[in-house]
Design goal:
single chain, 251 residues, alpha/beta, globular
């Protein structure tokens, strides 16, 4: 099936993470040019590149984004747009979670999570939107979490941030839809990643038995939902929505 993503310029944050890596691979396989966002050392993308052919590696353009330094992000994004002409799709995937009872959570840990999971993504979205508005087209996809509305024990701050990002998705979709820009979110459930493994410690031991599909999800299953929302041929009339990919665990 042709998703019409060939040669589209896609910026993804957290491209080296479990879900981020799967999303990156999916876009590359569709022929997109991937601006692979990373923080720190570019070697974080080595694992991703090792999964690609030589031709596919040419589709990957590392872009250093320190989400704690929005001025640095602006320079990087402006340079990318100058080089490629546009950013067609933004996937806000980077995030962090600290599993700890709220009363034991330090204020700096609250700030760290809020910056990574909410403040930085919405600031980055504004920077990219300024370019999308000029082109009058684009797709923004925010990666949320089932914790935004379920299973909040031990992750109160993370859950609140994810709930906020979904409300931001709806409100922004209302604001920019007339400019040809769609804004949606994907809400993963229990996906086999290092982050979810750490968050499962304070969840009921039989939690997967509550899931109609009775298994954890795979990162590529989240990537498929992101591709769907990014594709104008598949989802041109979808905006302001959250696609829940959780095997039915939130029913």
């Amino acid at each position: 099936m042709n998703l019409a993503l060939t040669n589209k310029v896609v910026l993804i944050t957290g491209a080296n993470g479990g879900i981020g890596q799967a999303i990156s691979l999916a876009f590359i396989q569709e022929g997109a040019t991937l601006l692979a966002g990373y923080r720190g050392d570019v070697s974080k993308l080595d694992e991703l590149k090792s999964m690609l052919t030589a031709d596919q590696q040419n589709q990957v353009k590392p872009i250093h984004l320190d989400l704690g330094d929005i001025a640095q992000c602006k320079v990087a994004i402006d340079e990318a747009v100058d080089h490629f002409g546009a950013i067609d799709v933004l996937v806000n995937c980077a995030g962090t979670a600290i599993e700890k009872p709220f009363l034991l959570t330090e204020f700096d840990e609250i700030d760290k999570q809020t910056t990574a999971n909410f403040t930085a993504p919405i600031k980055l979205t504004q920077l990219v939107l300024k370019h999308m508005m000029l082109n009058r087209k684009g797709s923004v996809i925010n990666v949320s979490s089932v914790h935004g509305f379920r299973f909040g024990r031990g992750v109160a701050v993370y859950a609140a941030n994810k709930s906020a990002i979904e409300r931001f998705t709806q409100a922004l979709a209302l604001e920019v839809g007339r400019n040809g820009i769609r804004v949606n979110a994907v809400c993963p459930g229990m996906i086999e990643t290092k982050m979810i493994q750490s968050l499962q410690k304070n969840m009921p031991p039989d939690i997967l038995k509550r899931c109609p599909i009775s298994r954890p999800g795979k990162p590529h299953e989240i990537a498929n939902a992101v591709l769907f929302l990014a594709s104008e041929t598949m989802s041109s009339y979808i905006t302001g929505t959250t696609v829940v990919v959780d095997g039915g665990i939130s029913i």
